[in-house]
From TrEMBL:
This is Nuclear envelope integral membrane protein 2. One of its GO terms (cellular component) is nuclear inner membrane. It is found in: Nucleus inner membrane. It comes from the Eukaryota. The keyword Transmembrane applies. The chain crosses the membrane at residues 121-138, 144-163, 175-194, 206-223, 235-254, 260-284. Belongs to the NEMP family. InterPro entries: NEMP_fam (IPR019358). The keyword Membrane applies.
Length: 420
């Protein structure tokens, strides 16, 4: 490393022979680089080999599990010969050293570039935040269940097969070991495939489409056979898994690890404080409504509402009056002695209308459309004696009702008062 070239931003180096290069971290943290990407590009017209130097960083001294996994992959994975290589540098991690070994003495170019706003990082960060907040809803969605099953079958076929054959594995410890190995193999396969995807798509497009369609269809059939999750415990486990994946996306979506940890802590606190904040908000509304002076709001009724309310309340009051008159507490003889028309009162108690047909007709003739009262108000031609005549005719009709009904009611009232 002492004889290596120290790379800096905006450096462009051309050499025809093999050499060692290192990017040394300055350790200065700047928030404007939170979503920036630092890349080292190696280009040549002939084939060369890129070899990372792992002696500078020991995997046992890795700070996080993600750094350990990345270190192991870099040791195991050795790039094949190519004409172009792109190296993504962790700006706040350890120093990065590598060698370039050209097969021919042809100049190759090593350049250091910085992208201030990397769309991939922003996409990962936003996806992680949304995935955490909607994890519970997604774990209960049938569409997400089938989509995730197809994606898992295509990208992690070994994991999908192991989950399908879980019931044939008796011991949980054996299943855990196999699951760990399948996940490590799948992640290693995805890591190796991402750099060769363009080449595979251009040369083996038909085979890739056949693989995606076949494996995707088989995965959908298996998921459809088992059906979406219905057990609450399984749904809870899936929710926790999605939230853990969301934390991983947030961590890889930010270049500064301290910022990623702070965002994860804030999300966890906001998730845990939703219930206390809701309680405080509820108590605040109750206190505000208690001390706030309530203003009376009067709402006027329309003519139709006034008529309907009057009819409803009238029928209700008449039924209450009938019930009271039929009760033992009602003094029937005293009421009969004070009434001018006892038989009409008796008919009312037995269920007859409180207004006779003659009274209805007289009211319509007097106050209805074309009635004498309306004509008198409009033209002042109706004499006052006519109104008196109509009123006396209504009273005479009341005295001409059936006498048998009156006698029967009086007998019933007498018997009730006798038993009291």
């Amino acid at each position: 490393i002492a004889l290596s070239h120290h790379l800096k931003e905006m450096d462009v180096i051309q050499k025809p022979v093999a050499d060692c290069y290192c990017y040394m971290q300055n350790g200065t943290m700047n928030l404007k680089y939170i979503w920036s990407a630092l890349q080292v590009k190696i280009n040549s017209t002939e084939m060369f080999k890129y070899v990372p130097i792992s002696a500078e960083s020991n995997c046992h001294n890795s700070e996080t599990i993600f750094a350990f996994f990345k270190c192991v992959v870099q040791i195991v994975w050795q790039s094949e010969a190519s004409k172009e290589t792109v190296i993504n540098i962790n700006q706040y991690g350890e120093n990065v050293c590598f060698t370039v070994q050209p097969y021919k003495k042809v100049p190759y170019t090593v350049s250091v570039q910085r992208n201030m706003v990397d769309r991939k990082l922003i996409l990962l960060f936003v996806a992680g935040v949304f995935l955490f907040h909607f994890a519970n809803a997604l774990s209960r969605s049938a569409v997400f269940y089938y989509s995730a099953g197809v994606a898992l079958g295509v990208l992690a076929t070994l994991v999908f097969l192991l989950l399908t054959l879980k019931r044939f594995i008796p011991k949980h410890s054996t299943f855990g070991i196999l699951m760990s190995g399948c996940w490590m193999s799948s992640l290693y396969f995805i890591y190796c495939l991402q750099g060769e995807m363009k080449w595979l798509w251009s040369d083996y497009r038909n085979y890739l489409l056949g693989y995606f369609l076949t494996v995707g269809f088989i995965s959908f059939v298996v998921c459809y056979k088992h059906g979406p999750l219905t057990n609450e415990r399984s749904i809870t486990l899936l929710t926790w898994t999605l939230q853990l994946i969301a934390f991983v996306l947030i961590y890889f979506g930010v270049t500064i690890p301290q910022v990623a940890y702070a965002v994860i802590a804030i999300i966890l606190c906001s998730k845990g404080l939703c219930y206390p904040l809701g309680m405080v908000s509820f108590v605040g509304r109750k206190v505000k409504n208690f001390f706030k002076s309530k203003k009376l709001v009067f709402q006027l009724l329309t003519e139709e509402e006034f008529r309907e309310q009057g009819e409803t309340e009238t029928v209700k009051a008449l039924e209450e009056l009938r019930s009271f008159c039929r009760s033992p507490d009602f003094s029937s003889w005293l009421a009969v002695s004070k009434l001018e028309s006892p038989k009409k009162f008796a008919n009312f108690i037995l269920g007859s209308p409180h207004v006779s047909p003659a009274e209805v007709n007289a009211y319509d003739e007097l106050y209805g459309i074309g009635g004498s009262f309306l004509e008198q108000q409009l033209f002042s031609i109706e004499p006052e004696s006519e109104q008196n005549r109509l009123a006396s005719s209504i009273q005479e009709d009341d005295y001409e009702d059936d006498d048998e009904i009156s006698k029967r009611t009086l007998k019933q009232t007498f018997k009730a008062s006798k038993y009291r």
